[in-house]
Amino acid sequence: MTDTGMRRLVVVSNRLPVALKQIDGEWTVQGGAGGLVTALAPVLKNRGGLWIGWDGASGAGEDSQRLLDDFSADAGYDLKSVPLSEEDVQKYYFGFSNEIIWPLFHDLQTRCRFDPEYWRSYLDVNFRFAETVARMTSSDDFIWVHDYHLMHQAFFLKSMGIKRSTGFFLHIPFPPPDIFLKLPWRQKLILALTEFDLVGFQTTQDRDNFIKSLNMLSPGAEVEGEGAVVSVRLRGREFQAGTFPISIDFNQFADMAGDPEVAHKAFQIREALKHRKIIIGVDRLDYTKGIPERILAIRELLRHYPDLRGKINFIQIAVPSREDVDEYRDLRDEIELLVGRVNGEFSIPGWVPVHYHYRGLPQRELASYYAAADIALVTPLRDGMNLVAKEYCACNMKEAGVLILSEFAGAAAQMQEWAYLVNPYDFEGVAKAIHRALHWDVEERRESMHELREHVRGHNIYWWVDSFLQAGISKNLQDFPAVDTVRFEEN
């Protein structure tokens, strides 16, 4: 890519980092949160970058871009909305993205609904996103596309004759070939991914699954290189495939946990539970997170180790998600039924084993729960990364906690040396891991948590952005704000 001194970073995602909400009949802009926004907003702001995505509203009309422009004036970077109709949302987002790709890529293909209408809508919306990218960018920009909703961006840009440097990052897992091949549109989708200059994955296993599927569907792909990023030659062109495990803003969570107000709230939580050992689970309500299996593991724990009755509390925080989808309502009912059964079986006067909270929590309150917990039970059935594991470690200021982690979470590839890895389908195995963690030697526990925290501190969200951009623009970082990873490691 030619260096003109005017290169911008253009982020393209299904949703903008803000959302339009109608309050008392008036449309307003509400800023988003999360690691991606935290990491990319300063990069975009410093050099006048651009973020392209849907604004979350289908009826804002002409007010949409005006409100986004007002927000942009303060944020320091531009926002461009791609309008979606209600039908688009139903077929492209809820349909193809979340009834096909989401379950398939999480190894749960029996939940897929392979409706051809979803595929047509997916292509249509991807084309409209690509038209917006083509119209709003120049050949000097670097286009960074995020996640499974927009896997056809590079393909459509090239079909329009638009030359752009493009990178794609998949936040969810990429399945093994025997799962991926069940997708009716498998060859078109995987070849669309090869049109990006850089395709990024959470783990080496995900990248290898992608390459294996590519080889099965398009024999002749040649892979060269070792390490995090490799080169792939296919049909006369070359692109890169890399591993870039996403992370969190370590200092943000550590600072929150160290705040006197948050620390006092953590103390109050422990006081309310009479200083029993606290086991915590935090998840968005989704069938991939393994919440029912986790509750059944707690039941096994109390059945096999009756001496723990009255001495522990399991707190499950489930953040509401897709409440208008029947499958998610059924999951909520299933979880509530299991919680009732476990509490009904083991409760005694003054003690209820499972505390279930179906609501979102502000970050500071969540940090207080992390700080109060003796054990984090992070046991998804399958996950691209799972940042809860990293958030818990960052908030564990006393370095006395234990992370019990699913071997099917992407985070396991980074944290397996210091966390207890478990199979979330093995209820007895998870129960044994909890029992061992409760009796783990104090010094060994602190040493492991210290190593976990140091790893997350050194491989934070800024390190992730920096590593992807270096691979994506051949280490020519002077056109973007320098990410001083040393500065983020001082505290």
Present the secondary structure layout.
Elements: E1 9-15, E2 18-23, E3 26-31, H1 35-46, E4 50-54, H2 63-75, E5 78-81, H3 86-105, H4 116-136, E6 142-146, H5 153-159, E7 165-169, H6 177-180, H7 186-193, E8 198-201, H8 204-217, E9 222-224, E10 229-234, E11 237-243, H9 250-258, H10 260-272, E12 277-284, H11 291-304, E13 312-319, H12 326-346, E14 354-358, H13 363-372, E15 375-378, H14 388-395, E16 402-406, H15 412-415, E17 420-422, H16 427-438, H17 442-458, H18 461-472
Parallel strand pairs: 1-4, 1-6, 4-5, 6-7, 7-8, 8-11, 12-13, 12-15, 13-14, 15-16, 16-17
Antiparallel strand pairs: 2-3, 9-10, 10-11
Helix pairs in contact: 3-4, 4-5, 7-8, 9-14, 10-13, 11-12, 11-16, 13-14
Describe the structure.
There is one protein chain. The chain contains 18 helices and 17 strands. With about 500 residues, the protein is of the alpha/beta class. It folds into 2 domains: about 10-245 and about 460-490, 3-Layer(aba) Sandwich (Rossmann fold), CATH 3.40.50.2000; about 250-460, Rossmann fold, CATH 3.40.50.2000. A hairpin with a 2-residue loop joins strand 10 and strand 11 (about 235-245).
